[in-house]
Structure to design on (311 residues):
């Protein structure tokens, strides 16, 4: 998947030229072209499509193979529309913010900030997550953590950096420095957006979709040690180029777990990620490599057979 994205983002000059040309196309026609391109990419997906289908069925098996195939097709279409939005439409976000977003529960974030501890927005890579961070950056004093070291995705991150979105690069920032920066931002009653579905083999052990895996522990550490409220958050495409943003009630992990119960707190947060991904499976980014995050030879965790059972 990264290789396919690289083919589109590698030549910045050609990209800018294409963007200027595509700006002239009416939105309904651009959407139609994106859907056609997504279908074509699905049909030509080969081994990549096969791996994505296997991963989806492994996690969402109770939905049935025919439905999973439909989810996979929508996944490709959403990816293409998202790339079009980032590379072409993002320059007009300022003027079209009211047409682009429906927002629900923003008062939950404001309630969390009223505690004067800052707030952590916890979210998966769902929908057009670049757009959602742009919205948050416009409305709040928001900081995020990204993995901008990937040459394939770097042009997309730089695009939003130009639009005023601030982020700390996980791969380029020493861990202690990263945590210090996040704590300082929260101390100023800032908002930190953390993607809970990042994966690295050196992350702490966790349970994800009923499998032993590895999940980032930063959100749990900040929430438990600094008593920072965690606000469940996600965005999703609802139709065409329009998106829904949802903020849930604040979760006070420090009232549920002790300071040394980070793993338990991470698993609690993962239940939210599972529920959201299971509800909008075609818009989760990481289907192409989710198989890499399962711990080898580890059995399914009893009582948690997968996302399909998470209420």
């Amino acid at each position: 998947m990264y290789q396919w994205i690289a083919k589109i983002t590698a030549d910045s000059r050609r990209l800018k030229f294409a963007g200027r040309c595509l700006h002239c196309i009416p939105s309904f026609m651009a959407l139609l072209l994106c859907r056609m391109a997504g279908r074509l990419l699905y049909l030509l997906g080969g081994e990549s499509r096969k791996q994505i289908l296997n991963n989806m069925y492994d996690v969402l098996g109770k939905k049935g193979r025919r439905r999973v195939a439909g989810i996979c097709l929508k996944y490709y279409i959403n990816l293409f529309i998202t790339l079009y939005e980032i590379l072409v439409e993002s320059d007009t976000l300022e003027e079209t913010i009211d047409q682009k977003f429906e927002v629900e529960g923003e008062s939950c974030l404001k309630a969390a900030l009223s505690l004067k501890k800052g707030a952590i927005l916890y979210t998966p890579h769902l929908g057009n997550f670049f757009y959602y961070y742009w919205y948050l950056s416009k409305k709040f004093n928001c900081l995020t953590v990204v993995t901008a070291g990937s040459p394939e995705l770097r042009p997309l991150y730089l695009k939003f950096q130009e639009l005023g979105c601030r982020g700390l690069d996980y791969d380029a920032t020493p861990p202690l420095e990263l945590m210090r920066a996040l704590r300082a931002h929260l101390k100023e009653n800032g908002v930190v957006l953390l993607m809970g579905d990042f994966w690295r083999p050196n992350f702490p052990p966790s349970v994800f979709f009923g499998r032993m895996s590895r999940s980032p522990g930063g959100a749990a550490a900040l929430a438990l040690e600094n008593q920072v409220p965690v606000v469940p958050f996600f965005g999703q495409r609802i139709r065409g180029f329009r998106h829904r943003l949802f903020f849930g009630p604040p979760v006070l992990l420090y009232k549920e777990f002790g300071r040394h119960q980070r793993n338990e707190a991470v698993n609690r947060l993962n239940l939210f990620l599972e529920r959201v991904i299971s509800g909008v499976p075609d818009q989760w980014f990481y289907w192409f490599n989710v198989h890499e995050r399962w711990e080898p030879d580890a059995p399914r965790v009893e009582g948690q057979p997968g996302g399909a059972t998470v209420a």
Notes: Residues 93 and 100 are 8 Å apart (CA to CA). Confidence is low (pLDDT under 50) at residues 305-311.
